[in-house]
Amino acid sequence: MAVGYFDPQVQSSMISVYRGSDYFEAQLLKGLMEQQGLQVFLQGAALQGGMGDLPALGHLSITVNDADQQRAEEIIAAYEAGDYSLDDGD
Fold first, then answer.
1. What is the C-alpha R_g of the chain?
2. Which terminus has fewer CB within 10 Å in the chain: N or C?
3. Which domain holds residue 39?
4. Does residue 87 lie within any of the structural domains?
């Protein structure tokens, strides 16, 4: 199956687990979730360049399958707790 392909017969319903405005943080979280085998969709990324001088908050959203919600929230909590941070020696 192609990356980003949505097949409604294979997918369960989707749920949003992240909403923010930091594109790099959203991409990082998306990558961490994908490394754990979750199917992740980042919505709103294409709006980033069209914002111009207007401040926009919460235009990025990460959605996952309902069945993956708990694992996705655990990954976000671990990220926020600093579990994925690099040590000075790394």
1. 14
2. C
3. 14-48+55-80
4. no
Q: Which helix (H) or strand (E) holds 30?
A: helix 23-35
> Helices then strands (H, E): number in the chain?
2, 3
For the CA atoms of 45, 47, 52, 58, the dihedral, rounded to the nearest 10 degrees, stands at -70
Q: What length does the chain have?
A: 90
pLDDT, one tens digit for every residue, the chain (90 residues): 444 445 555 546 999 999 998 889 999 999 999 999 999 999 987 665 555 555 555 579 999 999 999 999 999 999 999 998 887 665
Q: pTM for the full model?
A: 0.73
**Residues with Cβ < 8 Å from 2, sequence gap 6 or more?**
none
How far apart, in whole angstroms, are the C-alpha atoms of residue 27 and residue 32? 9
With tokens 């996705």, the residue in question is 72
